[in-house]
């Protein structure tokens, strides 16, 4: 299956960029412009996953899609774009290969439904944001299901993702960087294409891989 990665070096002078960096829902809408027109189910067919990464020279966005992107559809002056076909990378994955990884994930778990919540007609308990060792355990478990055996994992707590249109929508985000060994290429490919965890429409769950440094 094909996948494409669009790297956008954001223009800090753009009012739309400044808006999107403070509103995950608006950023998602902007990035959906990369998808072609006339899709029957644009969100599902495009398979958009994205992440904002900060660097010494400013923020940039990584936007992954299953369909070839159209960077010219982004707002004028939004940023400088580079597109990479990820298909060769996906086809080169093999068990035993060591890779570097990065993921900004919505680390949370569903709490048990209390009697009070059940009496109110709720069918699920509240989501609990995980931090510290709980978040690290969450990532180890998710990585194993995604076909990775973690060798190292460096956690970094990131600002909560929010939407101005829906103030109640928040996603607690932890980024994990490290080294891992591939154990299951099929599970890993699925995780790469579909993302991991909740909040994938708001900038969480994109797993990025790169070759591990040689000893």
UniProtKB/TrEMBL annotation:
Signal peptide extent: none
SUPFAM superfamilies the record matches: CRISPR-associated protein
InterPro entries linked: CRISPR-assoc_prot_Cse3
Protein name: Type I-E CRISPR-associated protein Cas6/Cse3/CasE
Organism: Streptomyces albus
Lineage: Bacteria, Bacillati, Actinomycetota, Actinomycetes, Kitasatosporales
